[in-house]
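COMPLEX REQUEST
Ligand: magnesium ion
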Amino acid sequence: MSDHNSDTAARHRVRMQRKKAQVDAAIARADQKKGVLLVLTGHGKGKSTSAFGSVARALGHDLNVGVCQFIKARTDTGEEAFFRQHPNCDWHVLGDGFTWDTQDRTADIQSAERGWAIAEAMLADAKYDLVVLDELTYLLSLGYLRADRVLDALSERPREQHAIVTGRSAIAPLRELADTVSEIKEEKHAFHAGIQAQPGLDY
Ligand code: ATP
Ligand code: MG
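STATUS: Structure written out below.
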């Protein structure tokens, strides 16, 4: 090895030793074990997909999972077909369709209330280790559900229970209550180039 290369290797080793000490210290500091409230928001693709990835992880650990899908009415998604078969996963499709399809605010609010009753029961039930509230943000940003009611149910859920909320434009108090918030940014989306939503990738 040339002098230059061995210098580079030695400097790399010192940098990595320092980095490892920092990472180990950060891991040692994170010593609390509790249920996490995760909010996946933003305009980019991948919020619901990410939530369903966590469902797979949870089921892989033999945890019990409850999923509530708000807004959307379709029951032909790949995620539903796959996870519904799992004995530890309860799956509810609670929407009547997109607001621009239903065009009926009163009916949308009634549907939101009915759906929320199911979600609220899951958030009060320690049997569920993970509760996914897919597209819930819209019910808050559109004022279909009272924010304090939703925030109370989330903050009073069993201590060990994880909850994941997805959807664009999460309201500020929800972001504040959450332990982890990811804002998924759109850089490009195939749909804008005329590529249709496709099974396996989009639903
Ligand atoms: P996904 O379910 O693919 O993870 P998402 O949950 O991040 O998407 P939603 O707004 O719930 O985003 O998306 C609903 C549907 O619209 C999905 O089929 C998704 O692929 C598609 N979609 C997501 N983001 C965009 C976008 N920026 N433009 C157009 N279509 C999108
Ligand atoms: Mg989604």
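REMARKS: Strands lie at 37-41, 65-69, 89-93, 130-134, 162-166, 180-183. Residues 43, 45-49, 135, 166, 168, 186, 189, 191, 197, 202-203 surround adenosine-5'-triphosphate (ligand 1) (CB under 6 Å).
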